[in-house]
């Protein structure tokens, strides 16, 4: 049985969503990021990323991490690709070409989308949009996103999903990175096919269940 370490308010949201899609039984160990704790040494502190038991799983002290038999994976996109390929049925690749495409979209999400989108999310969360300096930083990150979003727009203009004609782990991985940009008031409206695709992804019951778990956790 898979053991997944991490909380919903982390990149563990990706494998948690996928496992919900598959309906695969797994053990969830809610490991919280140590920086979110006021006193990690307290007797009643939850398991966290600096706990010795977790460091034995991932010495890099980051969540998520996954154990499946003798295999340990510590990168969220690698975890989702593995789970989809081994257990995901139609959510995973049907052949070598689909494997390559799903890996391509995961790398695209990680290299072209995630960093500026996440930076923008943090800026909005910190109220940076209320200052001229913050607005400038938001605008810079939005501009960095327009090129990859144009690529997504062109692809999704003729297809409902990223690979073949079905929802797959490729959509899940990219959607979870694009989600970070949803706080921008106008950016996604510039790319209507992307916005509609993201809505389709987030309308799925497994996403809603993952999001409910996320909202139930302390911020």
Give your account of this protein's structure:
This protein is an alpha+beta fold and 219 residues long. The chain has two domains: 2-91, Glutaredoxin (3-Layer(aba) Sandwich); 96-207, Glutathione S-transferase Yfyf (Class Pi), Chain A, domain 2. It is 52% helix and 7% strand. A four-stranded mixed beta sheet has the order 2-1-3-4. The longest helix has 30 residues, at 96-125.
Question: What are the main properties of this structure?
Answer:
single chain; 219 residues; Glutaredoxin; 2 domains; 52% helix; globular
Q: Rounded to an integer, what's the Rg over CA atoms? A: 18 Å
SSE class: alpha+beta
Q: What is the CATH architecture descriptor of the largest domain? A: Up-down Bundle
The amount of beta strand, in percent, is: 5-15%
Assembly status = single chain
Taken in chain order, the helices and strands follow as EHEHEEHHHHHH
Q: What would you say about this model in short?
A:
Helices cover 52% and strands 7% of the residues.
List the helices and strands and how they pair.
Blueprint: E1 2-5, H1 13-22, E2 26-29, H2 52-55, E3 65-68, E4 71-73, H3 76-87, H4 96-125, H5 132-156, H6 169-178, H7 192-202, H8 205-216
Parallel strand pairs: 1-2
Antiparallel strand pairs: 1-3, 3-4
Helix pairs in contact: 1-3, 1-6, 1-8, 4-5, 4-6, 5-7
